[in-house]
Amino acid sequence: MTPRTISILGATGSIGASTLDLIRREGGMWREGGMWRVVALTANGNAEELARLAREFRPDIAVLGDETRLPELREALSGAGVACAGGAGALIEAASRPVDLTIAGIVGCAGLAPTMAAIEQGGTVGLANKEALVSAGEVMTAAVARNGATLLPVDSEHNAIFQCLAGNDPADVSMITLTASGGPFREWGAQQLASATPAQAVKHPNWDMGAKISVDSATMMNKGLELIEAYHLFAVGLDRLRIIIHPQSIVHSMVEYRDGSTLAQLGPSDMRVPIASVLAWPQRMDTPCTPLDLAAIGQLTFEAPDEQRFPATRLCRQAAEAGGAAAAVLNAANEVAVAAFLDGQIAFTRIAAHGEDVISAFAPPAPASLDDVLAIDREARARARLLTQAA
Ligand code: NDP
Fold it and tell me: Which end of the chain, N or C, is more open, meaning fewer C-beta atoms within 10 Å of its C-beta?
């Protein structure tokens, strides 16, 4: 038996922690009798946690995006036999190392260049970092095709759809339905939303996630980004993609076929389920998750989204329809606006409004390369920052 090699980009985050938890349970590392050999673990500035993980999982290399924290990492890993590096170039170099599986778990467009580097080495990439695919769109899907890479969706909805599509022809699909919990403010009125605080926004009712995606769930921007992600992952076209609110987060998405059959994937609200399906794909593995008890859950309910109170899904659909650079611009503006909201600079309801303002004033030509996408992202961020500072 040979070990399976894996790199985890964003190892110190919520997706990274869930992935490493599963690896630990699968008997851990190759040199200790397990099946995995960890090649690279990366983080941004959290040197302490990265060092702790590197001492446990013994990757070939541990990398921090923030180079100023590198001395701290080096000191914490001295004598551990793990190489250390820092900076944007080092992230890309680590992601380029050939592995069987890369988990792309960096948050935001910051993960785009490393994810593209992983795609370019032609292996399998478990994609959690939706902002990378939303921003790069066809630039990324073309790189996947060109390099013979495989993208496996980690996002629970896309992982559900991927499972429901298995063995079927996309031409037979009549509708893909992405479910959304509706977030913590699903029942809030417009006035309440205007005064929502960061602490309230990051408190998701069903999922335990990083701060940025939690705010995106509260604004419904997460579901809009997921609509664009689904558009790029599954070749059914925008008119066969829709969103439905399902507050219990048990049905993770559905695929309806032209014969009237609808296949759904159900599971607990625990990211270790979709991550396990990616780690074991095309097989299955055990997880520690409590099996669903549908009798105890009792009711699964569904309702239409309200785009008056939560305009982000409309903005994302419009960006997908516009194509070209629109999604990259909207994503960049959203990242800046979410950070400004978390910093207490802007109101919750201004997050989507800033996205709309930036996208209506800045319409660059469609990107043809990674460099083009990164340039669009930089310019859109600069414009969004001016707006948030003026607020
Ligand atoms: P977290 O905020 O928990 O973790 C983000 C990770 O990315 C950390 O390891 C962080 O390092 C690293 N990182 C942040 N900024 C940079 C940067 N500029 N350069 C390099 N590394 C960076 O995020 P999540 O795990 O919640 O989310 C990760 C991705 O997965 C997002 O795209 C999200 O949308 C997606 N996703 C997450 C889900 C979840 O349940 N959490 C569900 C579905 C999708 P450091 O710790 O050092 O800051």
Answer: N
69 DSSP 8-state letter:
G
Q: Are 213 and 362 members of one domain? A: no
**3-class secondary structure, 7:** strand
CA of 292 to the centre of ligand 1 (A): 27
To test the ligand 1 pocket, which listed residue (209, 226, 249) has its Cβ within 8 A of the most ligand atoms? 209
Q: Are residues 279 and 391 in the same domain?
A: no
The reply to whether ligand 1 has any atom less than 6 angstroms from the CB of 60 is no
Last residue of a domain, one of 286, 320, 354: 320
Q: Which of 94, 123, 153 is the last residue of a domain?
A: 153
Tell me the per-residue pLDDT of 345-372, one tens digit each, with 9 for 90 and over: 999 999 999 999 999 999 999 999 999 9
Tens digits of per-residue pLDDT, 138-172? 999 999 999 999 999 999 999 999 999 999 999 99
What are the strands of the beta sheet with 61-64, ordered from one edge?
A: 83-86, 61-64, 36-43, 4-9, 101-104, 124-127, 150-153
3-state secondary structure of 236: coil
pLDDT band of 31, cuts 50, 70, 90: low
Preceding omega of 114 cis (within 30 degrees of 0): no
